[in-house]
Hints:
Radius of gyration: 21 Å
Strand content: 35-45%
Oligomer: single chain
Helix content: 25-40%
Low-confidence stretches: 3-35
Amino acid sequence: MTTLNRRHCHQLLGAAALGALFPGLTACAAGGGGVPGYTVSQQRLNELVARSFPVTRPLVGGLADLTLSSPRLGLLPASNRIATAFDLGLAERIAGTRYSGGIDLDYGLRFDMQEGAVRMADVRVNRLAIDQLPRAQQQLVSRYAPGIAEQLLQNMVLYRLPAEQMALARNLGWTGAALRVLPEGLRIDMGPGGVR
């Protein structure tokens, strides 16, 4: 058996093994030449992200606390990004006054092979609004809150692949994955040398 045939055989066996281990796995991506992959639904992604919230961080030298909660994901296939809207809370520590609002952002994705995780990347805040906040404080929050939100979410795990799947991928010599945002969810295609 030639080296090329052996390599193709290993890919087919790997795809078959992944399919047997993970029933939700589809055998091939469209035009993927037999590379195994699967799609994580928008609902499932939203459930997983929601587990990490609410999150609170200090703002403006510790004079106030900023809280992000209730993430709601939207898929942006045209730009291969994901949008997320959060409820936003602001609590002044001295006066004890609380304000509510919202923040909308979007981000790209990167695959962390070592951790077997899909992480948020290039986080961008598009809108931030806090109801009934005095003008001077609104300016402070508008200046600092987007950076805090971007730092907080940068590299956050969106989805973690099962350990068994990652172990099998490593045994097959696969070193990466292609991530595609589709109208129905996040498509993950793994393969030798990564998949582009």
